[in-house]
Amino acid sequence: MEENFNEETNLKEEEKYEYPSETLKHSRSENLENEKLNEDDYAKDKQDNFSVIMGRKTRTFLISALAVLLILVIFLVSYIIYSFGVFKDFQSPVSLMNTSEENPHVSGESEIKFENSVPEGELSAESIYDIVSPSVVGVVVYDSYADIISDPTSEGSGIVISEKGYIVTNSHVVGNSKQNNIKIVLNTGEEFSGKVLGYDSKTDLAVIKTDKTGLKAATFGNSDEVKVGASALALGNPLGLNFASSLTRGIVSAINRSANGGPKSLVKYIQTDAAINPGNSGGPLINMRGQIIGINSTKIAVAHCEGMGFAIPSNTVKTIVDDIIDKGYVSGRVRLGMTGKMVSNYQAQIYNVPVGLIVSEINSDSNLGTSGVKVGDIITKINGVSVTSFDAFYSELYNHKAGEKISLSIFRPSRTRMNSETFDVNVVLLEDKGETQQESISKK
To answer: In this structure, what DSSP letter does residue 18 have?
Structure first.
């Protein structure tokens, strides 16, 4: 403390010392010059400081602007992802994952696990349920334009045929379309989306593909070995998912049945009295060895009729499904390129016309028009075979290939019903590629 005190005292004493006048004058002159220099230095320093400060502010502004821009970019990217990803889920009741366009299927190979040999001995219904139920799924269908509050357009059943994510169901379950949104529900309650790979309305079969892998595939049996009187089980979701995984029991009532003589006439069904209800469609008909022998498709539902359900035989399923997975449609099919409906015996008597297929519309790619056929004409024969039903029509039509010519006998009624005419035309058949064409025949 004393050293500091003494030093301060000495400094004060030095400040009192008086310098000679000339020295003082000279010192003042130097001081003026020094002051001028200091002012210049000060101005320069001030300018330098201003430049430094402005530089710092500019850098701060640029950094802030870049930070804001980065935040905006992140926000924009997040919004785009949200809009085209998450938000899309809210537009539809189905969680629409991006199903892969890559098809893992090897062309020419069947995805269906098919056992031609019949295993020894029968299983209990309890054991069969445990074996098959993990392979039976719920199929919930939404319109492609559905929003978050939309109800399903249909609910049905489906069967896992491959661990690669292939599922078979009925064509009518998916709305005879590739466009509808599909939700798959496992018996565990797990949900995921799928897309319709292809469908065939003539046999009422469709294939759904999902990105979900590792699913348990069902085992199919040879439907040619099915015998009338054999026990059979039906498994599915009658009336929708509220009654999911319901098992019913019955027998094989008949084989090689034509259910209604309509567009499904290509299929010779297995008839069963096992309880089948709306929602069972697309589910399996199972023998007592745990093999799927058919896919439940339809039933006769009238007030005075019970226990008449129909399943598509497994051998038919295999042929159709393999083709759909390979090509997206059933190959080898032909069409006339028209829509029409049958004239019944009753209508024929009332309107004084023959029984046949009346032409309602001619497609633009058909050569019926250039052959002289008009809307309102009635096709009475195809290659000499009388068209008395859809069965008769399709049986003859599918004996031919695309590009071949067939002969059609035409009846053209007159307005007065007095001057009607009949004539024959030759028509070239077109290839039927499923959704690429309109329905060939309608029962409207």
So the answer is: P
Are 310 and 283 spatial neighbours (Cβ–Cβ below 8 Å)? Answer: no
Distances from the Cα of 305 to the Cα of 190, 235, 254, angstroms: 37, 21, 16
Could you tell me the CA-to-CA distances from 18 to 9, 22, 23, 35, 295 in Å, in that order? 17, 12, 10, 22, 124
Q: Is 26 a catalytic residue?
A: no
Q: What's the pTM value of the predicted model, to 2 decimals?
A: 0.68
| Annotation marks residue 391 as catalytic | no
The conformation of residue 167, written as its DSSP 8-state character, comes to: E
Active-site position among 133, 154, 172, 366:
172
Marked catalytic residue, from 204, 273, 322, 323: 204
- Name the helix (H) or strand (E) containing 229: none
Question: Would you call 304 a catalytic residue per the annotation?
Answer: no
What's the rounded Cα separation, in Å, for the pair 239 and 369?
Answer: 45
Residue pair 251/322 in contact (Cβ under 8 Å)? The answer is no
Query: CB–CB of 215/208 below 8 Å?
Result: no
- C-alpha to C-alpha distance for 158 and 244, rounded to whole angstroms: 11
Per-residue pLDDT tens digits for 296-355: 999 887 777 888 999 999 999 999 999 999 988 888 888 899 989 999 899 999 989 999
Contact 389, 263 (CB under 8 A): no
The one catalytic residue among 157, 245, 281, 440: 281
Which residue reads 């054991």 in tokens?
A: 127
* Confidence label for 395 from pLDDT (cuts 50, 70 and 90): confident
- The answer to whether the beta carbons of residues 377 and 358 sit under 8 Å apart is yes
* Alpha-carbon separation of residue 368 from 202, 376, 434 (angstroms): 22, 13, 20
pLDDT tens digits for range 170-200: 999 999 989 999 999 999 999 999 999 999 9
Rounded-to-integer distance, Cα 45 and Cα 68, Å: 34
d(CA 283, CA 274): 12
H-run or E-run covering 434 = none
